Amino acid sequence: MEHYLDNAATTKTCKEAIAAANDVMENFYGNPSSTHTVGRKAKQKLDEFRCDVAKALGAKPQEIVFTSCGSESDNFAIIKGAESQKRKGKHIISSLVEHDAVRKSLDYLETLGYSVTRLKPDSTGEISVDSVLKELRDDTVLISLMLVNNETGAVNDISAISKAVKANNPNVLIHTDAVQGFMKVPFSAKTLGADMISISGHKIHAVKGIGALYIKSGLKLKPLILGGEQEMELRAGTEAMPQIAAFATACKMDPEIKKIGELKEYLKEELIKSIPEIKIIETNAPHILNISMPGWRSEVLMNFLEAKEIYVSKSSACKQGKRSHVLEAMGLNSSVIDGALRIGISRYNTKEDADALIEGLIESRKLAHR
Question: Which run of H or of E encompasses 291?
Fold first, then answer.
């Protein structure tokens, strides 16, 4: 029996999202930019889907631009956000624990002459308001900090950061990668106070290949992808209607956060009781649990668990097995980093999944002690 606990990497597509995608492919297959009846029917659906995603984010429909994924949304926000402010300055604040889509966008901007300050997280993996304000300069034009860390589940107080930064300089743009936070921790575009917010479909049981970028009304950005006038002239290319339909449908589903959070707490308590030396990285996100068994290699543990059809990961899937830059930035020692596992929980997970993982880790520990 399969026990899939790598939901921070991706989630199983829910049947409702699959049905919505199929419905669009069968019945609303027109190009939303076409002016004939078939195109207009598709455009009407596209408008409905945009409203659904906007509602889930607490935004206006015209503030939602559909993209191909969270990484594209991050690239768009950071590169074009910085470009829109270049006459005011070229200093950017971010952190050492961001997703690679943010990190590499910042690396690219540095080649164009931008200066990037990368903040070190505290021992919990969070970025404090004070640490941001300390690095704020007259030429700071953009701040990009993730809402929920994709490896540890650390939650940054983006609302407090936005409020403090805007009080000092209202012209600084705030971007947050909320891919792991969307429909996992409570927030809206208004409460976050960010100018740009990246979200993704496949983290909430939609299909892969769809994301969105919230761009606050009044903010003028140039498109990242050039071509036609789709997406309010902000993102060229015919809209991926089946993926958008799946995304919008997933946005209307109950994420069952209470159930997910309870399962995380159960896992923590049972693992601590069963494996005394285990290290738990305490964070506030309900769906991500990062643990470590110092002295054991993550790869060995993952292979052992995989043989029992239990699936977890050691870090972000985008790292493809490389060492976690997040745990290194937190100052954890090598033995903890090398023995780290990331557990991602979704509404489809059960106590049986948790028990299978616990039993698998106990068994692997016994074998290692023989």
Answer: strand 288-292
pLDDT digits (tens, 9 = 90+) for 212-257: 999 999 999 999 999 999 999 999 999 999 999 999 999 999 999 9
Final residue of a domain: which of 251, 274, 289? 251
Let me know whether 210 and 260 are in one domain.
Answer: no
Q: Is residue 147 located within the same domain as residue 228? A: yes
CA angle 340, 346, 351 (to 5 degrees): 85
Q: Which of 14, 69, 251, 318 is catalytic?
A: 318
Question: Rounded to whole angstroms, how far apart are CA atoms 17 and 6?
Answer: 20
For residue 343, give its domain range.
3-11+255-368
Rounded CA gap, 79 and 64, in Å? Answer: 18
Domain shared by 235 and 363, yes or no: no
Alpha carbons 121 and 147: distance in angstroms, whole number: 13
Question: Do residues 274 and 236 share a domain?
Answer: no
Q: pLDDT category, 303, cuts 50, 70, 90? A: very high
Provide the number of structural domains found in the chain.
Answer: 2
> Which strand (E) or helix (H) includes residue 292?
strand 288-292
Known active-site residue 69: no
